[in-house]
Amino acid sequence: ILMTNDLTEEVLKEAVNLKAELIISYHPPLFEPLKRITQSSWKQRIVAGCLQRGISVYSPHTAWDSVRGGVNDWLGSFLSTHYDLGQPIVLNKDRPDCGAGRTYNSLNDGLTLAEIISKLKQHISTPDQHVPVALVHPLTHKIKSVALCAGSGASLLKGQSAELFITGEMSHHALLDANHAGSSVILTNHSNSERNFLPTFKPYLEKSFPGVTVTVSSADR
């Protein structure tokens, strides 16, 4: 099994070299239907390559976003000692403990905005990279509530009353709306809000399928 955030041609080459029989790609490689499978586009070449070599592809995007212990819980886990366990923003009607996004409320005083930015950068393994922010609070302000969504979370976070939004990407106008509603925003970059979940899920697969080799892609960028 090869795990990846995005199934690109480089990742497919890696899967072939590893003789992988299954690629778990967090993002589905296809968002629009194909009318033909040729060599004219990279997505068609990926489909053709998988079919030719008998490689299956599974994309658990929404399930991993929603489930307990999934991507959103991983993204918010750096808050765990200072905030509650987090609740879904949109509840799953069949599994009320699961759902889209997460909201967190502080235990005691919470963390300052500067502390959250620093801890988040360490958590997503970008300690030396600039993280875009749109702030309405000073860096010394202790944040009492956080709403987050891995990936592109503008539509889900809209209307939430949290002091801080954390997501991968958001449009300029969505940022302005959030700031005018009193919420500061931290943007991690879309893939940075998701990719480091894969190594944390790898042991679960290894335990569930003993004898199966599970690899996290090194070609996924």
UniProtKB/TrEMBL annotation:
GO terms for molecular function: metal ion binding. Keywords: Metal-binding. GO terms for cellular component: mitochondrion. SUPFAM superfamilies: NIF3 (NGG1p interacting factor 3)-like. InterPro entries: DUF34/NIF3 (IPR002678), DUF34/NIF3_sf (IPR036069). The keyword Membrane does not apply. The keyword Metal-binding applies. A divalent metal cation binds at H27, D65, H190, E194. Pfam families: DUF34_NIF3. Belongs to the GTP cyclohydrolase I type 2/NIF3 family. This is NIF3-like protein 1. It comes from Phlebotomus kandelakii.
